[in-house]
Amino acid sequence: MTAATLDPSLSIEMHRDPNEHGSVIEEIEGLIKVHKDGHVERLQIVPFVTTALPPELGVNSGDTEIDKFTNIWARFYVPVCHKKLPLIVYFHGGGFCVGSAAWSCYHEFLSKLATRAECIIMSVNYRLAPENPLPAAYEDGFKAFMWLKQAALSGTSYWWSKKCNFSRIFLAGDSAGANIAHNVATRLGSNNVCDPTTVLKPLTLKGTILIQPFFGGEARTNSEKHLTQPPRSALNLAASDTYWRLALPCGSNRDHPWCNPTAKGSIKLEDLRLLPSMVCISEMDILKDRNLEFCGALARAGKRVEHVMYKGVGHAFQILSKSQLSQTRTSEMIAHIKAFISR
């Protein structure tokens, strides 16, 4: 197992002149500050952790480098078992601007998901905006998928590969990570790509799992306008707007296809070879209506889609909330994912 080298820009800089980089022009309190000269500070609100896990969990974990030049790497979670398992390629959330596969909350959630849903998880650490605006994260996601193809072709040269059923691969993620999973799947299903079966061989992509997908649009939905969020909510409207300003290409608005896949000018969903999708929606999430509209658009386009609504919980409850209700809903989500990947 190889250890990941974390991007030093993810750490707090100590003992520097607060005026060194000019005034702060964009900020999400407690998470990120962007200065006038382009310097970015990310505050370590969530601790970074190693691959260590308690033995009683029955999951092995290790980090693997994917691309040294761009510092793309992945953390694998492999349950201890004697059979081959499906694999989920997972992208973390954070508005494209913060987050890491080494964040403790993802380490805890994905290790739990691996053991309970009986699957291998490849959690991808991709480049962040605003230093690397979209489509950098999509390119990293696609590169990770192509790296996985080469791993499959090389046989059992990786410690986790002998346990992997490469004919059952799923793309998944939460929030911005779900957006990445959808856009990687869209690229694979585009008419500009030849038969995906040929492109991906020996991999077989079976579906996508989108948890609270981070989409947007110029026109506000009812849940964006009226759903009251608690003070420490993982996503409010102001934070959402800031993330999109930092992540989208310069000059784009929130009807850009990467933000709003149903906007005029986006690739028609009917023209894509999209595989079955499961969309996990939170009742108290400002993205609730946006997610429901996306599911409706997929259904109208003749795509196989199912959605699950998690009552009484908000955005990213499965990784950020320790309440009893969130724990219960997280167990329900894991059971739904297990059912989806087992079909």
Question: How is this structure best described in words?
Answer:
The protein has helices at 104-117, 136-153, 176-188, 196-200, 222-226, 237-247, 288-300, 317-320, 324-342, and strands at 24-28, 32-35, 40-42, 59-67, 72-79, 85-91, 120-125, 164-174, 205-211, 277-282, 305-310. It is of the alpha/beta class and 343 residues long. It has an eight-stranded mixed beta sheet, sandwiched between helices. The chain has a three-stranded antiparallel beta sheet with strand order 1-2-3, with helices on one face. Helix 2 crosses helix 3 (176-188).
Task: Record keyword descriptors for this entry.
343 residues, alpha/beta, eight-stranded mixed sheet, three-stranded antiparallel sheet, disordered N terminus
Structure at a glance:
The protein has nine helices and eleven strands. The chain has helices at 104-117, 136-153, 176-188, 196-200, 222-226, 237-247, 288-300, 317-320, 324-342, and strands at 24-28, 32-35, 40-42, 59-67, 72-79, 85-91, 120-125, 164-174, 205-211, 277-282, 305-310. α2 packs across α3.
Number of helices: 9
Order of helices and strands: EEEEEEHEHEHHEHHEHEHH
Kindly provide the radius of gyration, computed on alpha-carbon positions and rounded to a whole number of angstroms: 19 Å
Oligomer: single chain
Strand content: 15-25%
The level of helicity is 25-40%
Read across the widest sheet, the strand sequence of neighbours is 4-5-7-6-8-9-10-11
- Amino- and carboxy-terminal Cα gap: 31 Å
Largest sheet: 8 strands, mixed
Low-confidence stretches: 1-15
Total number of strands: 11
Looking at the structure, what is the overall shape?
globular
Kindly report the average pLDDT value: 92
Structural class: alpha/beta
